[in-house]
Design a protein that fits this description.
The complex is a heterodimer.
Chain A lengths: L1 E4 L4 H6 L5 E10 L2 H12 L12 E3 L27 H6 L4 E4 L5 H10 L2 E4 L5 H6 L1 E8 L8 E15 L8
Parallel strand pairs in A: 1-2, 2-3, 3-4, 4-5
Antiparallel strand pairs in A: 2-7, 5-7, 6-7
Chain B lengths: L1 E4 H17 L3 H12 L4 H20 L9 E9 L2 E4 L3 H15 L22 E7 L4 E8 L1 H4 L3 E5 L4 H16 L7 E8 L2 H11 L11 H15 L14 E9 L6 E8 L6 E4 L1
Parallel strand pairs in B: 1-3, 2-4, 7-8
Antiparallel strand pairs in B: 2-5, 5-10, 6-9, 7-9
Helix pairs in contact in B: 1-4, 2-3, 6-8
């Protein structure tokens, strides 16, 4: 299985083909419905986003609380389609990659193509396994959103499948 | 008359919730294993292997099997000879849920529908009560995740649409859901009753073991026919194509009005979690 270090270079993204299994290591940011809505409120108001969007990897996920001896609680992906309305604009702002589960819209696929980005599907429901792939977790924005806050995660050998590649191909 | 203190119900809810968040029901684990062995798509097989490994990690480390530890759905069949004493039944249930979701390091996923402000303790639980004969209480606890709940549907069919209409509605719901609800799914179906009871029957169907057939032969046939057609869709585990799109279909029925044929399809992901106890 291909091992990838995040963030991904455009050259690396061009080598990825839909259907390929990969192991991801590096920094990813969690964000789901509420965090996206909050972020878009800031962007619409002309404000500075609380984290750098360029080359970031967003993981559609909201973790369980971590036990004292753990870096993170269970943390599998949530359904990506709910973020269809948000993803194209972030991709056009330089977002490096998306991780989630399930099909996304054609607009997202086009935006991935246009920006040479990639959408990875994590295995939905494998929360404990993904929780264990997280080495470090820190809340970096919107702490009042609790599990829906933006967490910066350091992951190691995080299994995923290339769902949409930068050529518009899909595993679905 | 038999007196039962609601503190006993609270303790049972607490223990069931803690166990349910971590452990798949045995028939679900068996169904995943069977699906893996029968899988011909390499990617779907990888996903099924990952899920089985995940369920083992969850048990070994007492971690939630899925981070969506759900809304707490509680169904009680209360014998009419039972007298409940102590705090109110709903307070006891919610206290049990609150303690379990805190002590188990489960995610708190309940919020106001408009402001989206989290209630921070996963309450209130969804509580269904039925009064039955006897002096016992049957309690069922099911954490229900919403990736799959979101893909559920309710149809008000015409009586003329009959069995074919029922099966068509079940298959259509799974087809429209596609890869989004974490297939392979478990499909709970309510047939008949009114708008509201039909949806409840669909939820109740999900408390049955996977692979258990409805005792009525004609209903069991709907279950097996719908399952075969769903697996013919080849959506597969996680939408990666493959042989298993659903692990099972369970139907529950109730008499309905002469003018109607309600059908509710409640989708459950492959993390089937459900606990049962008799007090």
């Amino acid at each position: 299985m291909k091992r990838l270090t995040l963030p991904l270079s455009k050259d690396t993204i061009r080598e990825l083909k839909a259907g390929e299994s990969v192991l991801l290591s590096g920094i990813i940011l969690t964000a789901r419905d509420c965090a996206h809505k909050r972020l878009f409120g800031i962007l619409d108001g002309g404000g500075k986003p609380p984290f750098e969007i360029k080359d970031a990897v967003i993981y559609y996920a909201g973790p369980c609380p971590a036990k004292p001896e753990k870096a993170s609680g269970s943390c599998g992906p949530t359904t990506s389609a709910r973020m269809d309305v948000f993803a194209p604009r972030l991709l056009d702002s330089g977002l490096g990659a998306i991780i989630g589960k399930g099909e996304m819209s054609n607009e997202v696929r086009e935006a991935l193509k246009r920006n040479t980005s990639v959408y990875f599907a994590a295995i939905g429901g494998a929360g404990a396994l993904y929780g264990n792939a997280i080495r470090k977790s820190e809340c970096i924005a919107f702490p009042d959103l609790l599990s829906e806050a933006v967490h910066e995660l350091v992951v190691e050998d995080f299994p995923a499948v290339v769902a949409y590649d930068c050529y518009g191909q899909s595993i679905y | 008359m038999r007196k039962i203190n609601t503190a006993l119900i609270e303790q049972n809810i607490y223990e069931m919730a803690l166990h349910a968040g971590v452990n798949l029901i045995p028939s679900c684990r068996a169904a995943l294993e069977k699906a893996k062995n029968a899988e011909s798509s390499e990617t779907a097989r990888f996903a099924l292997e990952t899920l089985i490994k995940n369920s083992e990690i969850a048990v070994a480390e007492k971690m939630p099997v899925c981070q969506d530890t759900g809304m707490a759905v509680v169904m009680l069949e209360i014998g009419q000879e039972v007298f409940l004493e102590g705090k109110s039944l709903s307070a006891a249930i919610n206290d049990g849920v609150r303690r379990a979701y805190n002590d188990g390091y489960f995610r708190k996923s309940v919020c106001d529908p408009i402001t989206r402000v989290n209630t921070t303790d996963n309450t209130p639980a969804v509580i269904h009560t039925e009064i039955v004969d006897g002096d016992k209480i049957n309690v069922t606890f099911m954490p229900k995740g919403f990736g799959s709940e979101n893909m559920s549907k309710l149809y008000m069919l015409k009586p003329a649409q009959g069995v074919e209409g029922i099966i068509g509605s079940i298959v259509e719901t799974v087809k429209l859901a596609g890869s989004r609800p974490c297939p392979p799914v478990y499909v709970g179906v309510g047939i008949g009753g009114s708008f509201d009871t039909c949806a409840f029957l669909a939820k109740k169907a999900l408390t049955r073991d996977i692979g258990s057939a409805n005792p009525r032969e004609d209903i069991a046939k709907i279950e097996s026919e719908a399952l075969a057609r769903i697996n013919g869709l080849k959506i597969g585990c996680q939408g990666f194509h493959g042989n298993t799109t659903a692990l099972g279909v369970s139907c529950e029925i109730a008499p309905t009005h002469i003018a109607g044929l309600p059908v509710a399809v409640n989708i459950q992901c492959h993390c089937v979690r459900c606990e049962r106890v008799t007090i």
